[in-house]
Design goal:
Blueprint lengths: L1 E5 L2 E4 L4 E8 L4 E10 L6 E6 L5 E3 L7 E6 L4 E6 L8 E13 L2 E8 L3 E6 L1
Parallel strand pairs: 2-11
Antiparallel strand pairs: 1-3, 3-8, 4-5, 4-9, 5-6, 7-8, 9-10, 9-11
Length: 122
Amino acid sequence: VQLQASGGGLVQAGGSLRLSCAASGSFLSINNVAWYRQVPGNERELVALITRAGSTNYADSVKGRFTISRDNAKNMVYLQMNRLKPEDTAVYSCNADAEVYYSSAYHLDNYWGRGTLVTVSS
């Protein structure tokens, strides 16, 4: 399973960006998907999570500004980021639980994608 994050860039404070996470490869289903972010020297922070059924959770710091969504038919997850602040600057990565089949059994494995850099200028 490969996860590809895209959509990062440079934006002014108050602006918006939409990140995309595309899943590809051999899997039966993509279950929970989360966006994390990390600033060099800091711990990785969970930003938002969405279940396969569409239930969502957000970090307090982004509630009301960010929206996570998914398109199961396209194996895509999105993070709409509005009213961006300089403190949102980070590398954003997607993480997913995928049901895969190997060694004659089904497994629920966890995967990370490469991050995409979001820079918010003041």
